[in-house]
Amino acid sequence: MKRWLERRNWPLGTRGATVLALLCLGALCAWWLQLSPSGLIPREGGVKLAGQFFARALTPAWDYETPPPEGTPPLVMKALEGARRTVVFAAAGMSLALVFGLLLGFLGSSAWWPQRMRTSGVGPFVWTVARTIMVGMRSVHELLWAVLFLAAFGLNSFTAVVAIALPYGGTLAKIFSEMIDEAPRDSAGALRQLGATGTQTFLLGLLPRALPDMWAYAFYRFECAIRSSAVLGFFGFETLGYAIKQSFENLQYGEVWLYLWTLFGLVVLVELWAASARRRFVA
Amino acid sequence: MSPLPHAQLSLHELKRRRPRERLVQITLLLLVLLTCYAWTCGDIHLDDLDLARRTENLERFVQEDLAPYSLRDQEHSWTDVAAWAWTIAVTRGFEGALQTLAMATVAITLSAMVAFLLLWCAARTSATARPYGDGRGRETFAWRVVRLSTTALFVYLRAIPEYIWAFLLVAMLGPSAWPLILALAIHNSGILGRLGAETVENLPPRPLTALRTLGATRTHIALFAATPGFLSRFLLYVFYRYETCVREATVLGMLGIASLGYWIEDVRTKRYYDEMVLLVAMGALLVLCVDLLSAWVRRRLRQAS
Question: Which of A194-198, B96-100, B238-242 has the lowest mean pLDDT?
């Protein structure tokens, strides 16, 4: 079995075999799940709902569809406020994740350990522990972390922040440690030859080579954090998801579409910003 | 100029002349300010951090809620706990995990197919009046519309999170497997479409241009020259996204679709936190296994190319 798995020439070639396996697996799973195209046709009532919902896609509501209680801010302000909260939770979670990510990422990378610690077993021990923690943080989805913390601590703002920070910290740590280990070693080698100490070599030779990629990746994760933060709204935190859920359950589809377009605008804005900054930073 | 123009400069001068980008500096500054604002604007209540108020809740959670319910009031050994965990795994866990895996697989296959079909309309090199040309010649209005609308579609599909798509689709299609699969497929085809289009744009242009001058049609080049060139990379992306799909499929079940998340939500509403933690751990294990599988496939693909 092992020999077969490791062998070089698969029938069809590796890529062909992968494509074929993926298609067959997909079909097999669809059969096992008893999927049929008829499931795609909305059930009774669903047709009407879908029609009403999508009819509002291009005409989102600009004002409340049912008169709100006295003193409520205008709908557009409510959407912007939701967007602001979404960004606040994402930024707070991300800043904490960055701390976890940098700490564990450094501990989990093998490039910066001095030679004698690497051979004495201290290094391998530390980076195995760090990598195990990373895997644990990363394998649990942010919503599941949120559910766990809600049970343990009750609903409070830190629950949302930590729920984002833990899985994102794990992911950042994994990618950071890989980036540090795979960064070009040329300048580090040169500094070494000139007699720099291990710390100097790492800080001035290795880290600056890995930093642009780390930075770009962290910015990309910030964009993902905004999406996660919006979704956390479905669990009672007052981000955009909270407003979407409420309006949808009250059948106010115009409002839902306003929130959806707000979220869309927010994500696209951050994406454009990240893309233009990344181009200049990595180049 | 001397061969090493910077060799004679002082350290101070070197530092002054280092390449700097205004946008990058502003971005960093803005991000720092945003972080400070996020922590201080009052939406994150710093007194929530005061654990003394939460201790009671936490103590109850750890000491009472987490103990297996059926064993709570009696002496129990680890074998009893293992037997309890096994019962839950057999009755709900394994079934849920398999369902999760199956739905994620269907979703990723679907989104890979959709992305593969659409990305040709979004790549700058193929979606023009003179495909795979040398870049000269005028662009027609029709092709520009096709390209921009496909790109915009990809952006829209991926900007809305899977969870929100699933939430909307469950209301329309009812709690079958379809809403979950469609939600995952919609989001991921947006991502795979963009990444695939970028890969096609970055293919070495000369062989494709040569084929074009020899008279190959758009379809010929796409199928027999561009696809073999970009397939390895595209498959790498597909397997990256497969990991994410399994993670998300677990969670989307919480909307009432029979994946692992369905059972997690089920015990959560009943406040059986002992079972909830066990099922969450099973979900983590599933994600871990898929991570390993996907890493193995990606290593093979990289070796092959």
Answer: A194-198
Tokens of B228: 């073999």
Question: What is the enclosing helix (H) or strand (E) of A3?
Answer: helix A2-6
State which residues form the domain around B141.
82-304
Q: Which residues of chain B make contact with A95, given a CB cutoff of 8 A?
A: 35, 38-39
Give A223's contacts in chain B (Cβ within 8 Å).
none
Interface of A with B in 105-124 (CB under 8 A): none
Position B67 in a domain: no
Per-residue confidence at B197, pLDDT binned at 50, 70, 90? very high
Within a domain: B269: yes
- pLDDT class for A283, splitting at 50, 70, 90? low
How many other CB atoms are found less than 10 A from the CB of residue A212? 17
Q: Which tokens hold the place of B202?
A: 């970055």
Count of domains observed in chain B: 1
Percent of chain B exceeding pLDDT 70 equals 91
What mean pLDDT is predicted for residues B239-256?
Answer: 92
Q: Does the beta-carbon distance from A148 to B171 stay under 8 Å?
A: no
CA A38 to chain B, closest CA, distance in angstroms equals: 10
B34: nearest CB among A91, A136, A268? A91
Residues of B in contact with A39 (CB under 8 A): 173, 176-178
Q: Which chain B residues touch A87 with a CB distance below 8 Å?
A: 34, 38
Rounded to whole angstroms, the Cα distance separating B265 from B256 reads: 8
Confidence of residue A26 (pLDDT cuts 50, 70, 90): very high
d(CA B178, CA B249): 12
CATH number at residue B210: 1.10.3720.10
Say if the Cβ atoms of B35 and A152 lie within 8 Å.
no
Mean pLDDT computed over every residue of chain A: 86
A1 touches chain B (CB under 8 A): no
Number of A to B CB contacts under 8 A, please give it.
Answer: 193
- Render pLDDT for B106-153 as a digit per residue (tens, 0 to 9): 999 999 999 999 999 998 888 888 888 766 667 788 999 999 999 999
Whether the per-residue pLDDT at B1 is higher than 50: the answer is: no
* pLDDT attached to residue A10: 60
Q: What is the pLDDT of residues A69-103, one digit of tens each?
A: 777 788 889 999 999 999 999 999 999 999 999 99
Q: Is residue B6 domain-resident?
A: no
For domain A75-282, the CATH architecture is Orthogonal Bundle (1.10)
- Which residue in the set A13, A152, A230 is minimally distant from B57, CB to CB? A152
